[in-house]
Fold:
Amino acid sequence: MRADPCPALQPKVATNCSRFTTPQCGLLETHWGGNTVLLATGVNTSQASSHQDAPLITRDPSANTTDVYAFVREVGGVKRLISALGVYPHEEPGIGPNKYNFDDDVLSEIHVATGNDVAAGKATYSFQYQFTTTYKSTATILPSYLGVVNDVGDSAQNLVQTYKITKVNNNTKAKTVLGSGVVPPNNQGIATPFYNQDNDGSKPARPGVATSAELDKYTQQTVAVLPDNYVSFAGQRDDGFYADVQSIFDLLQLRSPGKDSQGGYNLHMMVLGIPVSEIGGDQQVVGVYATTSRQRLRLIRTDGDRGTGGWVQVGRQGNPLFCEALVAIADKDLYNRTSPAQDSTVFRKYAESPELAKLINALVFGGAGPSIETGRTDIAGIFIPDLIRVDLSTASARLAGGGAAHPTNPDDTGFSRLGIFGGDTLTSAVQAGFGGGTVPGGWPNGRRFGDDVIDIAVTALISDLRGPLVIRVADGIDGVSQNDIPYSKTFPYAATPLNGREHAKP
Structure:
């Protein structure tokens, strides 16, 4: 593959294919650096990350991880690895009287592997988030809001959460408290007007913005700038994953257009900007994953004190789709209890012989499809060990805003939700990539808000990336190609939480 292959991927084929198409429908053969490339616009199927990846963790939403994001950004001369972890899938905006909050009894960790630890699936560094919840008054039936919150933590915000971030060097066992932060209120509506358009609690949430000065007041007040150039945020955000998950799991009866099953829902997200100088510099490829843990024993006494035991991991998240779309039911809960260090032994078989490839061939192509069903070393190279690999030597990743034509917050020039399959590439200084240092601009080189991981994953499955390359680009397979609200192109990047009073579901 040459360093300049991607423009050849731009043409698309207009077809009138049914949702379950024939092998010939919507395929265009072209050439990419001497390799065969097939563009598939009529292919419509996938499994998706519905945020309910394994049976047991669905019963524990505050520890249930949704998605992990990781990408490079350089701002003000400081190059950072931006990492993010979401919890609380399908969080209904604006419920009451009690609202969704981070769980004081859950330890959330963002792990970074460097050097030889990447191939071994071992976390070199772990960044721990622990939360504390307090009430200004318990002599009231109003647990969250006593009035309009004009500033984070003011007298109208009855329930206030704070958090502490600790960096753990897993090789030396050294622990460093990086700092602390405050969680902004959820977007209830009238009680939290500054999240919303025109600072009006009866209007929908503000769209994402291009600069930090345009962020809503609550988010601005809770972006924590920590010592050594770390930056952190923890709070409610819009769920930025988009896909028609409902129809995918309704017997693959896909619809056109698709409906974003996560549209209209929020989640709780931790976003940490890690200076690359703090993890060994930028001349490397690192691996990122996240876990949630609960304490082995928790005793709540009448005086409020708690006796506790050691932490036990209950949730894990790395690359999107791996646990749900590739790992069989028999091992899904085991995945959440193990680390990437066990992936090569326990889970490699699911990547090398993906059942999803068989399903695509059977259901989409009538049993004669192009997906290679065994020997998928290319798929194993993405998912085993299950770390999101991020090349820190590249320039900043291009970011999604509100679309290429948005008047105030357009996507960065060159951004494509299909990543390398849409011509969005970066240049590496530490690996040859696909020639000349060319590496994907998004997942599976990191993961950005806005990456269409469904289309990218299915493209990989119906292609052959082992060489010589045969690439079939699946564009718009589930009929959902954008998030329900624009992202921000400034920290914390995730979109504004939807208004509990005024929001819509597809």
About this structure: Residues 1-49 have pLDDT under 50 and may be disordered. The longest strand covers residues 78-91. Residues 458 and 474 are 6 Å apart (CA to CA). The two ends are 40 Å apart (CA to CA).
